[in-house]
Amino acid sequence: MSRLGCTRLAKPIVAIVGRPNVGKSALFNRIVGRRVAIVEGEPGVTRDRIYADASWTGRSFTLVDTGGLDYGKDAERFVQMARTQAAVAIAQADVLLFVVDARAGLMPADAEVAEELRRSRKPVVLVVNKVDHPTVEESLGEFYGLGLGEPVAVSAEHGRAIGDMLDLVVSHFPQSANEDEESEEIRIAIVGRPNVGKSSLVNHLLGQERSIVSDVPGTTRDAIDSDVEYDGQRFTLIDTAGIRRKSRIDEAVEHYSVLRALRAVNRSDVCVLMLDGTELATDQDKRIGGYAHEAGKGIILVVNKWDLVEKDEKTMNAFEETIRREMGFLQYAPILFVSAKTGQRVNRLLELAVFVANQHALRIPTGRLNEVIHDAVIRRPPPSDKGLRLKVLYGTQTGVKPPSFVLFVNDPKLMHYSYHRYLENQLREHFGFIGTPIVIRLRRRNA
Ligand code: GDP
Ligand code: GDP
Question: pTM, whole model, 2 decimals?
Fold first, then answer.
């Protein structure tokens, strides 16, 4: 069995918290604003996101906006959900951006959030937003009273002092010294909606019942890691179970379980996305799948509760069709039908994870790669625009996990999405890359 390494340090998560209307979404947009949408046109990738990848002075991180949820008009419901929201965000984040509003001044709700933040002992950057003009800065004094240190005054709307704020955020990240440290185990994140069967699956793989942590919705237990060895290979299972869907705060819990999943995905090599055989491919499934895809992780789709599905010999194909249609961006992910309850096919999962981890780390010799590219270009000529035709000169693999390639072309602007996809499919046809996204970048080179 081959040795597989992985990066030790996961991408940090930065969560924006604060009471409604202080400008959390504005700040989120300001920070991620310059990001180029590389997945434009990919079918099925959910657009309404509460998270995005960003970077500052060479450090990349995942930014989470906790303000995107519509609570409706029910006041009590609102307060309860806001608490859940803050608690989950605090538990999952590495650094918290706590936003208050200079125009509104210090409010009791700010103090409440501050209290929770202090108790968490996590790094907090106190951000006073809506300081559109330097003159307003005089009124910042009251915010020192929150006990979270010196506030940084910004204007999300005008882009004022955002760099200073990000310098502070980045200064709290774990040191990157051992970022390249390799280890031999495969880290598997088990993610999916509440009640899909994550705990049951993990219990089965570990061969023991672990204590169910809590039945209280919104419980903010962090992901739990367990080590397991199979066929000489070590695995770490990153389990995100622990919240149950039971009360009227369902919606918020479901929403913020995405955050939990996101953190687990960041720390993994291979992501096992569990779907419920009785309720396939919901929006939340797509959201988590989309994230794992964009994060460049190995991906396995597991359809659980297969024992509950009324089936004949056509059912598996029909399920697969539905999944492929609904999650068009995960065509490459293998699908495994299991029952965590009866144990049916569960033992196949670790073998499949080893296979996918190898595909995720696959290197193609440059000569072979260029043969395939050359043949592909001859079989289907590249697109042209106003008499100019795209020329693909040669390619090289620049990295693994996920496999990444650079193609040297006469003019990157002449590339079309459909041709990009054709080339990707050609690589997949020849080399497999089963269960892993692949990245193809273009670089200009004069012919
Ligand atoms: P959230 O509920 O915390 O996500 O807040 P939003 O981002 O939706 O912003 C609430 C309101 O504050 C909106 O009307 C924004 O236009 C406004 N706002 C946000 N940032 C600023 C700012 O820097 N200056 C000013 N003057 N208004 C802002
Ligand atoms: P989690 O929230 O994703 O960790 O889900 P759990 O593992 O706690 O499972 C939620 C419920 O679904 C529990 O009542 C399980 O007994 C049940 N369950 C999990 N897997 C299966 C399965 O394969 N078949 C059936 N029939 N029930 C399952």
Answer: 0.65
Please state, in angstroms and rounded to a whole number, the distance separating the CA atoms of residues 248 and 253: 9
- 19 with 85: CB under 8 angstroms? no
What dihedral do alpha carbons 436, 440, 441, 446 form, nearest 10°?
160
Q: Is the peptide bond before 412 cis (omega within 30 degrees of 0)?
A: no
Beta bridge partners of 63: 14, 52
Residue 287 pLDDT exceeds 70: yes
Q: What is the pLDDT of residues 166-183, one digit of tens each?
A: 999 999 987 654 444 456
In tens, the pLDDT along 224-251 reads: 677 888 888 888 888 775 433 444 445 5
From residue 284, alpha-carbon distances to 6, 193, 201, 301, 331 in Å are 27, 7, 19, 14, 18
| Three-state helix/strand/coil letters over 379-445 | HCCCCEECCEECCEEEEEEEECCCCEEEEEECCHHHCCHHHHHHHHHHHHHHHCCCCCCCEEEEEEC
* pLDDT over 80 (residue 108): yes
Residue 8 has pLDDT above 60, yes or no: no
For residue 246, the CA-to-ligand 2 centroid distance in Å is: 14
CA proximity to 329, closest of 20, 40, 10, 9: 40
β-bridge partners, 441 = 406
Ligand 1: residue whose CA is nearest its atom 26 = 130
Provide the 10 A C-beta neighbour count for residue 78.
Answer: 15
Ligand nearest to the CA of 25: 1
- Ligand 1 contact, 242 CB (< 6 A): no
Query: Counting ligands in written order, which one lies closest to the CA of residue 254?
Result: 2
* DSSP state letter for 172: T
What is the model's pLDDT at position 220?
Answer: 36
Contact between residue 401 and residue 269 where contact means Cβ atoms under 8 Å apart: yes
- Torsional class of 237: left (φ above 0), alpha (ψ -120 to 50), beta (otherwise): beta
Distance CA 32, CA 335 (A): 33
Contact 433, 362 (CB under 8 A): yes
Task: Pick the atom of ligand 2 nearest to 241's CA.
Answer: 4
Helix, strand, coil % over all residues of the chain, rounded to 5? 35, 20, 40
Q: Which of 300, 296, 262 is nearest to 399 (CA)?
A: 296
β 335-337/298-304 pair status: parallel
Task: Give CA–CA dist 175/96, Å, rounded.
Answer: 17
Is the per-residue pLDDT at 433 higher than 70? yes
State if residue 436 touches ligand 2 by the CB under 6 angstroms criterion: no
**What spacing in Å lies between the alpha carbon of 81 and ligand 2's midpoint?**
25
